[in-house]
Amino acid sequence: MSIITVEHLKSFFKTDEGIVKAVDDISFELKENEILAIVGESGCGKSVTAQTIMGLLKCPPAMIKGSIKYHDQELVGLPNKAYHKLRGREIGMIFQEPMSAFDPLYTVGEQAAEAVAVHSSLSKFEIRKKIIAMFNKVGIPEPENRYDEYPHQMSGGMLQRMLIALTLACDPNVLIADEPTTALDVTIQAQVLNLMRDLQKEFHTSIIFITHDLGVVAELSDRIHVMYAGKIVEKANVIDLFDHPKHPYTKGLLASRLRRELKGEILPYIKGTVPRAFEFPKGCRFHPRCPHAMNICQQQDPEPVMFDNGQVCSCWLYAKQKKKAGVDKR
After folding, report:
1. What is the DSSP string of 2-63?
2. Nearest residue to 325 via CA among 314, 117, 317
3. Mean pLDDT of the chain
């Protein structure tokens, strides 16, 4: 059963340089009690997708079209006051930079308590007790003392754990994690990922995990959506995507991973860069970087094609092999 359903979502921005098509006609669904990963390079629209779901984009300058449903409630066009009741309580978000997520003038306990108080009728004593218990659950040492400390007194890894604890203290049904391990060193990354996986199993929270690191999603996610230049180009479960990638962009991302056997060799990479969002090329947006580009790739945007295993790929390489998938939200 789906908890979030996104259909034909567009998030555009009007700027002096032109219309920025940050998210351009994407559809997908998040099922209950699953971890869905959205992967892609910087500038592909992953974070804007998350911010659109959370209702964090100001309209204007943002122009949002399409549909985002939380259960049966439509979120696109929802008044800010109504969104405020959902945000945190029903749908929580963990941001990339834990240091910037906290106000340096207040203790982490004060900030956590304020967030919980907005969405509950608990007393101050009960809120403090609940937050300290959550700090303890995410592995923060001496949680009673940490409650009264300021953000600058803690490491990035500790703050990220506290941000996760703060978000989960509001008991959300959906958690959106926007590259939560990007600013952390490798050992802390592993701890945070293990923590999120354990908490997801314990609280049965549905998670949208946004990252550019395919190594991370291999360990954490159930399904993966690959995003490029504002569009989702491939959808698959984690095993199929790693064993049988379809889209040339997905293959390029997988080939670009660091591996021991590449020592001493030129590291593989995808040539070129993601085009700016107001300069997307006509046709398939990946064709200027694609080693398999054909004439039709420069003229028409490919339709999504579904394979027998449920994998979906938008690429002209497969257009004549399989029937069109239509709008596939899986």
Report:
1. EEEEEEEEEEEEEETTEEEEEEEEEEEEEETT-EEEEE--TTSSHHHHHHHHHT-S-TTTEE
2. 314
3. 86
Q: Is 305 exposed, middle or buried (0-12, 13-18, 19+ CB in 10 A)?
A: buried
Identify the structural domains of the chain with CATH numbers, from first to last.
2-90+172-318 (3.40.50.300), 91-171 (no CATH)
| DSSP characters over 93-143 | EE-S-HHHHS-TTS-HHHHHHHHHHHT----HHHHHHHHHHHHHHTT-SSH
Is 138:165 a contact under the CB 8 Å cutoff?
A: yes
pLDDT tens-place string over residues 100-123:
778 899 999 998 898 888 878 888
Q: Is the pLDDT of residue 322 over 90?
A: no
Is 41's pLDDT higher than 70? yes
